[in-house]
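Record type: ASSEMBLY
Status: queued
Input:
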Amino acid sequence: MGAEEIVRKIKEEAEAECEKIISDAEANRRKRLAEARAEAEEQKKSFVAASEQKAREEKEGVVRAARLNARKVRWDAEEKIIAEVLEEAAKALKEVKKNGFKGRSYSEILAGLIKDAAVSVVAAGAGSSSELEVRLSEEDASFVTPEMLKELSAEVERSTRGGVKVRLSVSGERIKSEGGVVVSGRGGKVEVNNTFEQRMARLSSGLREEIVKSLFAEK
Amino acid sequence: MAVEALKLIKEGEERGRRLKEEATVKAAKILEDAEAEVRLVKEKALEDEKKLAAQILEKYRKEGEQAEAEIMKNAAAEAEKRKSLAESNRDSAVSVVLEKTLGLR
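Status: finished
Output:
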């Protein structure tokens, strides 16, 4: 082999090696970029998923709060109307004394409240006889007569099937109330408060339910 | 003659070595550029992620706002409807309270 031939061979080998170095570098470059892109794409996917999750949770929080708020709006509106109804009823109670209610005079209504309370007092602990005191407001005392109490005593007795002798009498003690009665056994051990205020308070939860039922009944 | 040949071969080898050196430098530059490109890819991806996150947040924020407005609108409408229903039933509700309070029910 001549010198020129050797030089040509050296040149060819060097060029081939150079080409390999460059093509390896290019391949590395492509591989590195492809990896970086894939990694970025993967990272983007999980970042998007996390962002979506976070944003969805925030939205759900807003919706939950709105639902609560909406319930409060409805509740507040309902409560306002219920309060108005109770207020109106309290005002109407004053009219009942003058005009009665649903065909009943106030005396008849008081008689019903006295009987109801008396039956409860008797049931709660009377022996074979019961002396019951009826306490009223100054205003209401004029609606109750001795005849009425006599008749009511008999009615209460009948409700015990004659087992208890009942005698109702009006106490000299007056109560402060918009209306209604307090009935107690002698000695005041058992007492039933049937004043309007107490009845409204006692009935309040059931009353609220009844008011809601009446107010929002579709006709 | 042999000296001349050796000189030629040495020069050839020297050229070959220089070529390889140049190729190595060029390859290093290619890899260096690739790293810069990778950095750019990462930066761009980060930027895209931020933009996407903002878009996603905005999309859900709007949806949340719309849902909230819808819920409150419905609640107000329902409250109004119930109010007018209650208004027409008010007398009977007052009557119920009176009946209960007066012991007629």
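Annotation: Residues 1-105 of chain B form one domain.
Annotation: Chain B has a mean pLDDT of 93.
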